[in-house]
Amino acid sequence: MRTSALTSTLTPLIVALAIGGCQSTPTPSADPGPPPPPPPRELPGSVTAASTGATLMGRITALNTSTREVTVTGSDGSSVEIVAGADIRNFNQLKVGDQVALDYRAAVALELEPAGSAPLGATATQARTVPNRGDIPGGARSNTISLVTEVAAVNPERGTIALRGQSGNTQIIAVERPDLRAKLPNVKRGDLLRISYTQAVALGIRRSP
Questions:
Q1: Which of 49, 121, 151, 174 fits as disulfide partner to 166, beta carbons 3.0 to 4.6 Å?
Q2: Are 29 and 17 in contact, with CB atoms under 8 Å apart?
C-alpha cells in the first residue's frame, strides 16, 4: 500500500533526526546497501496460435515394396501418395486393400524467450516416431521450421506487436485472438519471439468392419 511504503521510507529519517537532536554530534545512519534485485519476469510459455489437421480414411490401392511408395484412395475417389520411410516399421504387413488412415497435422506455436538467448533467423528440425515391433504398421515424421524475431515495439492497447527480423526489417502484426492479446502486457521490447511451424504426416492402420 502507499501508506505503508511512505511510512517505511520516513521512519529512518525521523529516527535519525531525533537522535541528532539529542546528541552533540550526529550519528550517521547505517548504510542500507543496494536495493534487492526485482524478481525475474516470468515469460509466457509456448502457445499454439493455430492448428489444423485432416484425415483421409481409405484403402491402399497401390503398393510398391521396392520404392516403398503407398497410394491411399478415399471414398470420394481422392488419392494421396506417400513414401513410407525407414522409420515406418513392419512395412511388409501392408497390402493392397488394407483400410488405412493418412493423417496430416500442422500447427503454429509462439513462445517468448529472453533477449539475446538465441540468434535471429530460421532453423529447421526433424522428428519421428515409430511403433513397437509387432504392432500394426505406423509411423510419423514431422518437420518444424522455427523463426526467431526480436520484439521492436508492443502496444497492448491497440493489440499490435512489431517484430524485427534478421535482416533488420520490421513488420507490425495485429493480434486478433483475445487470449493472445491478454499476454501482450508481459511482452517487452527486446524479447525474442520464436514462431514455429510444424507439419507432420503419419500413416497408420485402422481396423474396419
A1: 121
A2: no
DSSP string, the chain: -HHHHHHHHHHHHHHHHHHHHHSSSPPPPP---SPPPPPPPPPP--EEEEEEEEEEEEEEEEEETTTTEEEEEETTS-EEEEE--TTSB-GGG--TT-EEEEEEEEEEEEEEE-TTSS-SEEEEEEEEE-PPTTSPSEEEEEEEEEEEEEEEEEETTTTEEEEE-TTS-EEEEE--SHHHHTTGGG--TT-EEEEEEEEEEEEEE----
Q: What is the pLDDT of residues 129-182, one digit of tens each?
A: 777 776 767 676 778 899 999 999 999 999 999 999 999 999 999 998 999 999
Contact 195, 149 (CB under 8 A): yes
Sorted by sequence, the CB contacts under 8 Å of residue 125 that are 6+ apart come out as: 143, 144, 146
What's the pTM? Answer: 0.59
Rounded to 5°, the CA angle 18-24-28 comes to: 60
